[in-house]
Design brief:
single chain, 171 residues, alpha+beta, six-stranded antiparallel beta sheet, 32% strand
């Protein structure tokens, strides 16, 4: 085997790997979302709904990954949830109902979201009003980060619950 044959074989192998990766990547785009506990998925859905309602958004977005997750269960089937995560644009158009074939785009900034809400019996309560704050990641400031945490902690305190970020956290 010559050096040229070796290079050709390596090129074919690399091409094959990329082809297999492209084949499986649509499923991977939903895998992170599907592994989230239901309580956290509801908050992601809330953020996606709010994001899709903006007229300037042209692409379909999907959950990309969690940054911080925390919750408190003060009792009586009540849970306070805080979730900081990223959404990522896909190659699908806004309004796509079946996301299974949507592949992530790498030419758009991530959307940085923080949500906090109260659930009762596994359903998001409307009082206190769920908090959803999403912004393109490059635009997120330290002041915004602080404001998010303060707002969510206030939500917990107003109901007599301990601070959300001092509770059960997972990354």
């Amino acid at each position: 085997m010559t050096i040229t044959d070796t290079h050709r074989n390596m090129a074919v192998l690399v091409l094959l790997l990329f082809s297999v990766g492209a084949f499986f990547s649509p499923a991977d785009s939903q895998e992170a979302y599907n592994t989230l506990p239901e309580t956290y998925r509801k908050g992601v859905d809330l953020a996606l709904e709010k994001l899709s309602s903006h007229t300037g958004i042209q692409h379909h977005f999907l959950f990309f990954r969690s940054i911080t997750k925390s919750h408190i269960e003060p009792g009586f089937d009540v849970t306070y949830v805080y979730h900081h995560f990223y959404l990522k644009a896909t190659k699908c158009e806004k309004g796509t109902t079946d996301s299974s074939a949507c592949q992530f785009r790498n030419d758009r900034p991530l959307i940085d979201c923080a949500v906090c809400y109260k659930t009762f019996g596994g359903q998001i309560e409307q009082d206190p009003k769920p908090y959803v704050h999403c912004v393109h990641k490059p635009s997120l400031t330290e002041e915004m980060k602080t404001s998010r945490v303060e707002h969510c902690n206030t939500m917990g305190y107003s109901s007599g619950a301990p601070t959300l970020l001092a509770s059960t956290q997972s990354r």
